[in-house]
Amino acid sequence: MAKKKNKSKKVVWILIVSSILVVCGGWVADRMLKQRDHPGLRTFLSQWYHNYPKSFAVEPKLLSITVGQYELDRLQSVVDAARERGVIIPEGNDYVSAELTSEGRTFKAKIRIKGKMTDHVKGDKWSFRVIAKKDGGFLGMKRFSLQHPGTRNYLYEWFHQQLAKGEGIVALRYGFIRVEFNGEDRGVYAYEEHFGPDLLENNSRVEGPLFRFDPGLFWAHRLNEMNSLRFNEPFAEYQAAAVDAYGTGGLAKDPRQLGYFEEAVALMSEFRHARLPASKVFDADKVARRLALLDILGGHRSLDWSDAKFYYDPVLQRIEPVAYESFSAQAIVDIAGSGQWSGIQSQALDIHAAWFSDPVLFRAYIHHLERFADPKYLDSALAALKPALDSAAATIYAEFPYKELELDTYNRNRRVINTILDVPKGFHAYRGGTRNDTTSVIAVPIVTLPIEVHMLKLGNGTEVMPVGPAIVPIRTQRRAGDPFTLRFATADTTVFAKDTKLIYSVVGSSKLREMSILPFAFVDGMKADVWPNKDPAPLSAFSFLRVDEAAGTIQFGSGNHVLDKDLIIPSGYRVTGSAPLHLDLQKGARIISNSPIDLLGMEDAPIVIHSSDRSGGYVRLQNTSAPSKWRHVRSEGMGSSPNTTQASLQFQEADITLLECTISEDRSRDLLLAIRSSVAITNGQVLGGKDQITLVYAHTMIQNCRVNAAGDEALVVKGGDLIVMNSQLNNTAGIGIKISAAAIVSLESVIIGAVNKGIEVNEASLLKASNTVITSAAIGIDVNGEEMRYGPSTVDLVKVDATKAEKAITVGKGNTVNMDGKAVGPQK
To answer: Which of 8, 9, 422, 660 has the highest CB neighbour count under 10 A?
Structure first.
């Protein structure tokens, strides 16, 4: 009996001790989780219980990597050195050969360890940079990275890239897969697109340089810091960094792309030397969208010049940001633009301060920030992305079921943004004086955001507009605000009555506020800022323009007019011109319009746009809010462009109809370029030029046209769709129609005569042709072989005669080609 009691006591003590250990272990685990910004053990267990089963709903793609022993040893040496040093450096981190297999298809590649910090070489989940060889690739990418999902914070970077793409920013393909390395399952990895032509194609961009500021010297500085060696290192500054292109080997072999990169370097130099403002160098709206996104997502750690990546648009000659590494989601206590505004250009400014000191860019930034901080924005984005998000999350949950996309931080950031923009008072306003029919008000800044004054509103309802600069500068934290003089076009002494209000807003904000003027003067240290004037010539400088601001119209006056400086037409107008009208673009002058232009000539008196000194100007319509229409317009003799990217006529996101128009030029100049536009050309003639009509992700209809004597290609179609009917393309020195990037082309009753090829089909494009004749060419129709990252092309030919070509048709492997209902097999 005593033995039974002793045994029972032992069991009780074991249970008590076990319970204590479980409780203590749970407490320790809870504390450890909370130290890693996790809500705690209870939430952790709940996430495992609910999320892990969700991973069974998807079967993620598997990518297998195989390397030889020699290559493995070289990779291991880089990993060992990085772990010892605390950072990954380029020296010795060379590419090694590898084979990659996915879905039964194998391609050769070269790989290396990627990243800078040692989170990329923890455990056996090493991060790799991959470059596929020849026509290899994965998910449409030739260059990409594979890394632990935690290096980009799991689902948060995926969400960042999706939002960026939805905003029209160049975004990387980013997602999750399973990876095997030399037969060992390495679990769930994040794949991230690297910088190359595939990235631009996936974002519907014209091919141009992708580049960054070389971070090599910056990381030398960081390494010194990590070794506790601190000294004045001027080489670590953004102003000292070289502009570094991705794919420099390819640039050296491509004179055109090398020229584009040199243009980008020159523009960046003008910006860093404060000779051009940000909005004349960068696509201000896209930079603003990216900066505002980093605010709402809590990606302020990405606001470092060494993390900035760029794309140069060679057509608009503007630099765009690339969405890269958001470091989200962190709780913000301020917005990126707070305290940055200077209102001037200066070489001393960091790149972000220089961006935020440009009024055009800052206005766009605040506009988008208000939009993103509206609860509807995130709600609608999450609703649209739900299927894709569920799939990505299920893949992550197979290994990391506790890594959810939590929205609390985003919602908190949204509230912070709205609170910051809801300034309680923009500035203190004091009475000034009256002189020369103007009245002054002295503004003393309060907040760290620039404030724009829109008007004085008198008690009787009269609105008085400001004269001269009307943006009140910011107050630097822990310093008193410097007074700023506002001037208004009135000498009415009742301006300072009690019921007079100043109407103002944060620069770019849609929310107007009002304040009263203090009933006494500010007499200490009044001054006004100096504002640089780098704006183009105003519309009033062109005497032949008839501008009606009330109606929002601009009319070209009849007659012969010489333009020897750029005519820049802002958005918000309807521009018209009618015969008789001749526009002579001299000294390289350009017409660049953000408003639609309607031109109406006559058959016996067409409107003529030309250059008597053949100085290489052009006409560009961009981002117009409505379609344009030209009839009986003749564009000719612009001369060789100093920049080979500039066609004589350019339409970017600007829909246009060309009726009975003629475009002609010498063979050194491209004629017409359309990017992401809808274009209709009917009963027209295109004569001479190099590439005559280039269509980039455009929607185009060409009917009853004569396209003759191209110096290179007659039609270049990159993405988008094209229909050609009842038209002739003759005497083409290069290729009649060159089709690529999954373009869709339909030909009906078309005659093509070319020296090189009649039609060339590439990169998963679709061609349907009927009743078409190729009268001459070395190759009638050339369908290039399937490329793995694109897929096969498809060609359907009905009553197509290419027998007059030296070789009627050539078909590469992997494509589907039918002629009059019969399959045509590969011959190359």
So the answer is: 660
Q: What does the DSSP 8-state code read for residue 196?
A: S
Asked if the structure places residue 498 within a domain, the reply is yes
DSSP element (H, E) containing 5 = helix 2-35
- Bridge partners (DSSP) listed for residue 439: 434, 488
Same domain? 765 vs 795:
yes
What DSSP element (H or E) covers 188? strand 184-193
- Same domain (yes/no): 472, 584: no
Q: What is the distance between the terminal CA atoms of the chain, rounded to a whole angstrom?
A: 94
Q: Per DSSP, which regions of 401-541 are E strands?
A: 427-435, 438-445, 451-457, 463-464, 471-472, 484-488, 501-506, 513-516, 518-521
Residue 389 DSSP one-character state? H
The number of C-alpha atoms within 13 Å of 135 and in the hemisphere containing its C-beta is: 14
Return the DSSP state at 484: E
H helices present in 182-247, as ranges: 197-202, 216-226
Contact status, residue 445 vs residue 479, Cβ threshold 8 Å: no
Both structure tokens of 523: 């007499």
Count how many domains the chain has: 5
User: Helices 375-397 and 408-421, interaxial angle, to 10°?
Assistant: 160
With helix as H, strand as E and coil as C, how does 6-48 read?
HHHHHHHHHHHHHHHHHHHHHHHHHHHHHHCCCCCHHHHHHHH
In a domain, 406, yes or no: yes
Q: CA-CA distance, 675 to 623, in Å (whole number)?
A: 10
Mean pLDDT of the chain: 89
CA 403 from centre of chain: 29
The number of beta carbons lying within 10 Å of the beta carbon of residue 432 is 24
Q: Are residues 313 and 330 in the same domain?
A: yes
Torsion of CA 630, 636, 642, 646, to 10 degrees: 30
The identity of residue 54, as a single letter, is K
The answer on 267 and 241 residing in a single domain is yes
Amino acid of residue 440? S
Question: 564 in helix, strand or coil?
Answer: coil
CA distance 411 to 768: 50
Q: Look at residue 546 and tell me if it is in a domain.
A: no
Average pLDDT over residues 408-418: 96
Residues 6+ apart with CB under 8 A from 379: none
Q: Answer whether residue 217 shows pLDDT above 80.
A: no
Separation between Cα atoms, residue 261 and residue 507, nearest integer Å: 34
The vertex-283 CA angle with 280 and 289, nearest 5°, equals 135
Residues 392 and 430 in one domain: no
760 Cβ contact partners less than 8 Å away, ≥ 6 residues apart: 735, 737, 738, 739, 782, 784
- Indicate if 502 and 601 belong to the same structural domain: no
| Rounded Cα distance, 781 and 815, in Å | 13
Q: What are phi and psi of 322, to 5 degrees?
A: -115, 130
Q: What is the pTM of this model?
A: 0.82
Distance of CA 595 to the CA centre of its chain: 22
- What span, in angstroms and rounded, lies between the C-alpha atoms of 619 and 413? 44
| Three-state DSSP state, 449 | coil
pLDDT at 108 over 60: yes
CB atoms within 10 A of CB 687: 17
Nearest one of 570, 575, 564 to 542, comparing CA atoms: 564
> Which structural domain, as residue segments, surrounds residue 390?
205-416
Q: Which of 212, 213, 210, 208 is nearest to 257 (CA)?
A: 208
**Higher pLDDT residue, 432 or 220?**
432
Q: 687 in helix, strand or coil?
A: strand
Residue 495's pLDDT is what? Answer: 79
What is the Cα–Cα distance from 686 to 713, expressed in whole angstroms? 12
Cα–Cα distance, 320 to 312 (Å, whole number):
6
* 412 and 429 belong to one structural domain: no
Give the 3-state DSSP-derived string for 700-714, with helices as H, strands as E and coil as C: EEEECCEEECCCCCC
Please check the confidence at residue 29 and state whether its pLDDT lies above 90. no
Confidence of residue 683 (pLDDT cuts 50, 70, 90): very high
